[in-house]
Batch of 3 targets.
Target 1
Amino acid sequence: MTVLEVSRYRPGIDAEPVFQRYEVPDNDDWAVLDGLNYVKDSVDGTLSFRWSCRMGICGSCGMTVNGEPRLTCGTFLADYDGVVRVEPLHGFPVIRDLVVDIEPFLEKLSSVSPWLIRSGEDPASEFAQTPAQLEAYKQYSMCINCMLCYSACPVYVLDPDFLGPAAIALAQRYNLDSRDEGDRFDVLSTDEGVWGCTFVGECTSACPKHVDPAEAIQRYKLTAAVRSVLPWVRL
């Protein structure tokens, strides 16, 4: 049997989170999420956590596994020796057990307008892009909003007002899109935006989709610096 040591927090019952141990079968093909579902279905139905697709697409099953932010659907029990400790993502308020409050993240995400911004009338035909134009922003479009980069970011954990890696990377996804006409400078070029980043790089290491938020932030620092001197320039 594999032992899961799971963080439990029940509002109105627990003054602070406590750990509870559960035994789950030793199945080589089981992910951590499978172990949690076994506990939920067969051992303790009061355990609360988020999940949806089980395919690394929805991003909802992000948790802290043995101290690292991971997607639990793609993190396998067989990869660990001994007790597997599962906690909620660090840096977020805990609602119950492994469920964190994602509203602050959603507010930051919406503040960067992560959609195509166009002026004037709708185009008469679709916009064609060259492979090079697509490649300019493609990697940033792979973000699944799992928030692992936020949990890994020491700046965000210490300063919840920091805009954060995913929001900035998604802003860059549209800044670099040849079809976009938006201007996100006032949101990004602030102390809580790109200038709050100290370039630790843990956000990039934690991303399960190989997005490089650290690069996005550093690239926009250059853009912001140029625009502060030459405000009419749009890079």
Target 2
Amino acid sequence: MKRYFTTIGQDSHKVENVKNKPLMLGGVEFESDFSLAANSDGDVVLHAITNAISGATTYNVLGKVADEMCKKGVTDSKEYLKEAMSAMKNIEIEHISISIEALKPKFSPKIELMRENIASLLNISMDRVGITATTGEGLTEFGKGNGIFVTVLLSCCKEEENYIKRI
């Protein structure tokens, strides 16, 4: 019997101006006059996805595991996501919904490329990846352009032999 469940992941990073550090979002490079504060590449979208997967598997990657990887020179957030995915034993991703709050950059020109890249990283079809972006009418620091905030809702299912259906 399949058991369906949902997890949430979130992350945020502050805007910083570091020369020669690209702005990476969803594994896609954005042309920008700023980057995000982080020891890694600061890909806040992949970090939020990694956190959602950690919620599904209980294997927390961001924090101690990612810090150790970073000390070894691994700063590509795709590698953190791959590490989290390694714990997805018998868990299938049904759908992922990604909500981004930021004033900049403009996301619409690259949303399809982000969806394609995320689908590839998660080994799912593009129709299972939804991305929305908002400025939140400038009511928060993210909407004012001081950072980027991402929330991810991950719907999964797991085949379980001993699952007892509760009525």
Target 3
Amino acid sequence: MTNIIPAVNIYKRFARDTAIYGIASVLPRLINVLLMGLHTKVLPPQAYSINTKFYVLIAFFNVLFTYGMETAFFRFFTLLERDKRVLRTAFTSLLLTSIFFTVLLFLFRRPLIELMDVDERIYLIFISILLLDTLMVIPYAYLRVMHRPLRFAFYRTFHVTVYALFNLIFLLWLPFWFSGSEKLIQWYAERPKVYYIFIANLIASLSTFLLFLPMIVRFKLGIDKQLWKKMLRYGTPVMLAGMFYIINENFDKLALDYLAGSNIMGAYAAIYKIGVFMVLYITAFRLGAEPFYFNQHKEKDAKTQYANVMLLFVVAGSILMLGVIAFLEWIVEIFINRPEYLVALDIVPVILAAYLFLGIYFNLSVWYKLTDRTRYGMIFSAVGALITILFNIYMIPRISFMASAWATLAAYSVMALLSYFYGRKHYRIPYPTGKILFYLLTSTALSFWMYEKWPDQTGIKVLILILYGLMVVGMEWRSLQEVVRK
């Protein structure tokens, strides 16, 4: 029987870092989820679709602006045993290119504003956020690779706290304070409420950048040309994979906006965010796992460790998926404040399953990152993007928003399967496949069954969740005993 945690000390450090990164990821995203309640209260679905489109574009351009340099930095900084040339080269490269790209976006703003269909003020906020966020990529990565999760968590939490605070100021307090002045209310009303959300984001990004500035000014500038070429070759497929990932994550919203209307897109985008609980888990796990994978790859038992991490991920992810379905009634009551959004509620179990497969894919990606075959990640993501595009275009006119949810599940599950089978050829990891499939299929089936059978019976769903948890403990009892003994 495969033990979940045979190397206790290694896993304790991994668990500690993941827990801290989890706070750094969960707390900001949890605040964002709480803000979703405010946003769905003050914004109708049509306005919420504008907010969604803005962040879809931010995500896409973020990938272009960073062109895989973050992952390349991780790879070469650990491979060359923390050689400072890697830090200098990565940061200087992003500094120069981000300034260049920002200038281009500003010079060609007229046609781009028409293409993106946004207000000029929103466009200027857009490119400012892009520049600031890009300049913070390497500082964040440096904290992770140097095992400084507490500082990483502080910066992330600071950013989202400022963002949340100014959301409250702009969307709740300003209208209240201005209520006694007709001129101030008129000035406030001249801008759509979604505009103030973007201003809050800009203030948060600028504040966090200023907080990073003492660290950034200590980075020496300079590019090692040979090293830069190697990092670029390594990072370019990662960038393309990232672009395909953005398509997988966001093409559905754009397609729904065009094929089904902004109201449907806004409702879908808001309910889709309930899947953020699985995203939080995946992000926290990934932030802790990525440095762990690179730092452990020279150890003799590295592959066994990777297999055990995958099992841990699936076990915990399956419990989380059931937990979200069990408490879905409460979650909806807290975070969705307009009944118009509930039309898309049926996507929840599909999106949760899709994100669990995405997390599995992220864990499987270790083989092509460690063997410098990042082109495979690009290929797998391209296949997923093709599935996403074709499925959405063909099926949205037939089954509306459910097409987008099923397309997401199909894309991520196919990507995971492709990565698994190709990984067996190039970097075979002894995954406990039988156990993983059992936990994955059982939890997915239970989630769909609970949602369809007892949509309003929280008590019954919680009981099923508890029974599933007890089953997991029973199956992994020996491994748990080993952890307790050590």
